[in-house]
Design goal:
Blueprint lengths: L12 H4 L4 H43 L3 H6 L2 H8 L7 H27 L6 H25 L3 H23 L4 H23 L9 H34 L6 H33 L5 H32 L5 H26 L3 H53 L13
Helix pairs in contact: 2-6, 2-7, 2-10, 4-5, 4-6, 4-9, 4-10, 5-6, 5-9, 6-7, 6-8, 7-8, 9-13, 10-12, 11-12, 11-13, 12-13
Keywords: Membrane, Transmembrane, Transmembrane helix
Protein name: Polysaccharide biosynthesis protein
Length: about 425
């Protein structure tokens, strides 16, 4: 794969990651405060609701995880990629992204309704699904706010969420059941989403511009693939635990996912803050050297990652199986370097050439198929520890597919305008 730039100039690392330190600190601080509150809240609620009550809550939240990326479907990432490159169509692009988010909201609600149809225990899973949908919409709206240079709205949004979540956790510790807890959580997200939308003032005349709509929808769909795969894979692993009779281990897996997500989401959020600058720098530049470097790193990741995962799973089954949730958390922490490495590669490729974006989206889709097969091969005998290992294997499959398509000499698809 080669870069499609026309200037012949390479990418400057110094210019690629330049954001005002105060803005960076406030954005990361607010988001980390919220994520940290989520972790502490889950620890407190696990003790307050007991293993049975918390396992039901964890299963509902984990099972609804796939709705969060579906409800946003790459809109935030697409907006942060395309809006910084636009000059005279910013407001129209905002209108297109808001309209797309509304369509996905309705589609997500329809999916949730179908999944809950005929269930006697639909209340908690339904509320968890609504939470995931509203949270996905919230991330779209704060992303659009940052794209139009209103980072303060993102900061305020997450500070409010942290404060409300802390209050709801106290209520949960004093007797509030999971369903009421989630209902109030969802209501908070709805109020914040309405306030953020009012501040954007979208221009919907852009919906009549087919070129803008096609570029926005197409790029959003491709950039959503990795996020959708992430959400669906987590839900798939909870399903595997359930159907193989290991649902009691759901609480340990969910705690591990929540705890690790603080670090991983902070890293992903940092990349989103930098994305407007990265997008501008990568636009119409010669990226041949960068893609070659990525290929070398991917080769090292695959060659070292396979034996690393095999050894860590074996050691975990011998040493950590009896620890339950803490053991799962330790193994998850051991997989974090792999998640970081592939996440970084995916990020650069999404914001590079159209071919690179299609390549990493294809690799993510293939990794989901591989995880589906591995989940029902490993989880039945390895439980939650096996589920964590499957996540790491999925990243290595993604890396292997991308590496194969980055190999020099392979024919590449033609660029698609607008992405």
């Amino acid at each position: 794969m080669t870069g499609t730039g026309t200037t012949g100039r390479g990418v400057s690392a110094r210019n690629l990651f330049t954001v005002a330190p105060k803005v960076m600190a406030s954005l990361v601080g607010a988001r980390m405060g919220y994520r940290g509150t989520i972790v502490l809240a889950n620890i407190a609620l696990a003790g307050a609701w007991g293993s049975t009550g918390y396992a039901g809550y964890a299963a509902a939240m984990g099972g609804a995880a796939f709705l969060l990326p579906i409800s946003s479907l790459g809109i935030e990432k697409c907006a942060l990629k395309l809006i910084p490159r636009a000059r005279h169509t910013v407001n129209r692009l905002i209108g297109i992204f808001v309209a797309l988010a509304a369509a996905l909201l309705l589609a997500s609600l329809a999916v949730l309704a179908v999944l809950l149809l005929g269930r006697d225990d639909a209340l908690l899973p339904g509320l968890a699904g609504l939470w995931a949908i509203c949270a996905g919409g919230n991330q779209v709206l704060v992303g659009l706010s940052r794209a139009v240079d209103r980072p303060g709205r993102d900061v305020a949004n997450h500070l409010v969420l942290a404060v409300v979540l802390a209050g709801l956790t106290v209520a949960g510790m004093t007797g509030t059941p999971p369903a009421t807890f989630l209902a109030l959580y969802v209501l908070t997200l709805i109020v914040l989403n309405v306030a953020l939308l009012a501040g954007l003032r979208p221009d919907f005349t852009g919906l009549r511009r087919r070129t803008l709509v096609r570029a926005s929808v197409g790029t959003s769909a491709l950039m959503a693939v990795a996020d959708v795969v992430g959400g669906v894979s987590v839900s798939l692993l909870f399903l595997a635990l359930s159907v193989t009779g290991a649902q009691d281990e759901s609480g340990g897996l969910y705690l591990a996912v929540v705890a690790s997500s603080v670090l991983l989401n902070a890293f992903a959020y940092l990349l989103r803050i930098l994305q407007p600058q990265v997008s501008r720098e990568l636009h119409q530049r010669d990226l041949t050297s960068m893609l070659g470097t990525l290929a070398r790193w991917l080769r090292l990741l695959v060659l070292a990652g396979v034996p690393y995962l095999a050894v860590t799973l074996g050691a975990s089954l011998l040493l950590l199986r009896d620890l339950g949730g803490p053991g799962v958390l330790v193994l998850y922490a051991a997989c974090v370097p792999i998640l970081f490495a592939m996440g970084s590669v995916n990020y650069l490729m999404e914001n590079a050439t159209p071919e690179a974006l299609r390549t990493t989206a294809y690799g993510a889709a293939v990794s989901l198929v591989a995880m589906g097969a591995l989940a029902f091969a490993i989880v039945p005998w390895a439980g939650a520890l096996g589920a964590v290992t499957v996540l790491g294997c999925g990243e290595l499959v993604h890396a292997a597919v991308v590496l194969r398509r980055l190999t020099p000499g392979r024919s590449q698809p033609q660029p698609t305008p607008g992405v």
